[in-house]
Design brief:
Elements lengths: L26 H4 L6 E7 L16 E9 L6 E2 L2 H15 L6 E7 L5 H7 L3 H18 L3 E5 L6 H25 L5 E7 L3 E2 L6 E2 L2 H7 L2 E5 L26 H10 L8 E5 L1 E7 L11 E4 L5 E3 H11 L2 E5 L4 E6 L2 E5 L2 H13 L4 E5 L8 H11 L1
Parallel strand pairs: 1-2, 1-17, 2-4, 4-5, 5-6, 6-9, 10-17
Antiparallel strand pairs: 2-3, 7-8, 11-12, 11-13, 11-16, 14-15, 15-16
Helix pairs in contact: 4-5, 5-6, 9-10
Length: 378
């Protein structure tokens, strides 16, 4: 995650019955009111103010993102973050209902090589882990989150498992020493448990994820984009022509052995755009020449503006539980209010721990966020 990027498939459990080891009680901020996880990422570079967040639709908010330094592997808290984080924490502490805040590391713009080097030895993992705890406690976060996009081979996946194990142990120990509730430990992951792009076949360490994380967050979006020469859905629930779908991805995680309640499903608040090769051929899979409006990406409120301004034709596709719209040679695939309802109900039907959005500031007057929250609660 991060600023949506034009790359294949890209862009990230829990319920009230789950228990977590470690000192202190986490129940209040892991399982608010027994309603599961309704989360969203707050991109720190966004002009959207944290004081504008309507917390009635969320239980957990992630601050995104900090990066490890390339030589020390300690978190680099920039001057910008030193000002932005206190603003974020202060704004959310005053909200009713309250939300749990997590500090996220990595994102779509991360340096994957730095993460690979960081996890490669016990010593460097320890430096990183201790830094995340120190920064999270200093600013008042209640959890830490890793969004490494993406480990490139089996060795890096194995080292990731060690990181999860050692991180959780450190969090448990720190909570015992300081007498505070343990910091949450979560991780955004690829939409499927196995993948092959940018390297050979590899799988996430499902056993370590199940044992050490509070939840994992499959990023169920960026299935298609203008890097392809045909139109496609950004976050298809189902796709009869391929395995690039949320149903397949979530199913792969459950099949790998991760409990459904430890999966928090990702939803996008943005869409992908193309320029059609022929404006008269405008369905899903239509030939395309490259990126469309917004340099290939429009967030939801921009999509509605595009639809109204251009008098676009809007189509809801039942199979993918997604929308697409087109006007002239411009084509957009995206999620709307109906999409959110269908996908959240899907998540709940499988007993998932909840869902999350990328990203705050992209909705239209909380329309999708509200529908998703209602679909989850009721």
């Amino acid at each position: 995650m991060g600023t949506p990027k034009l790359m294949p498939f890209f862009i990230l459990v829990i319920f009230h019955t789950m228990l977590s080891s470690g000192s202190g009680s986490n129940s209040d901020h892991i399982y608010p009111s027994g309603k599961g996880i309704r989360a969203a990422y707050f991109p720190s570079s966004n002009s959207f103010s944290p004081s504008s967040i309507d917390t009635q639709y969320f239980t957990h908010i992630y601050y995104a993102f900090l990066q490890p330094e390339s030589t020390t592997y300690k978190l680099n808290v920039t001057e910008f973050d030193q000002a932005r984080i206190p603003e974020f924490i202060k704004a959310l502490r005053g909200k009713n209902p309250p939300v749990t805040t997590l500090l996220s590391m990595g994102g779509g713009g991360n340096n994957a090589t730095v993460f690979a080097l960081m996890v490669s030895t016990q010593a460097t993992r320890e430096v990183f882990i201790n830094s995340t705890i120190q920064v999270a406690r200093k600013y008042g976060f209640q959890g830490v989150d890793l969004d490494w996009e993406f480990p490139k081979d089996a060795l890096e996946m194995s080292n990731l498992a060690l990181l999860y194990k050692e991180w959780r142990k450190a969090l448990d120990n720190e909570a015992r020493v300081c007498g505070k509730p343990r910091l949450l430990l979560t991780s955004a992951v690829y939409y499927a448990s196995k993948f092959t792009f940018y390297g050979g076949p590899r799988s996430y360490p499902a056993g370590a994820i199940s044992k050490y994380l509070d939840w994992a967050s499959p990023m169920c979006f960026d299935y298609h984009g203008s890097w392809e020469n045909f139109t496609g859905m950004n976050a298809a629930l189902d796709d009869s022509k391929s395995n690039i779908s949320t149903r397949y991805g979530i199913g792969s995680w459950i099949e790998a052995g991760v409990p459904s309640k430890k999966l928090v499903m990702g939803l996008p608040l943005y869409g992908r755009t193309w320029t059609l090769k022929d404006s008269k051929v405008n369905g899903i899979g239509a030939p395309a020449l490259g990126m469309g409006p917004g340099d290939g990406v429009l967030v939801y409120h921009q999509i509605l503006h595009f639809n109204n301004r251009t008098n676009a034709t809007v189509v809801y596709d039942t199979e993918s539980a997604s929308y697409y719209s087109y006007s002239g040679s411009s084509w957009v695939g995206y999620d709307g209010v109906r999409s959110a309802y269908m996908k959240v109900r899907f998540a709940k039907s499988l007993g998932l721990g909840g869902y999350f959005f990328w990203a705050l500031g992209q909705d239209n007057e909380w329309a999708i966020s509200k529908q998703a929250s209602n679909a989850w609660k009721y």
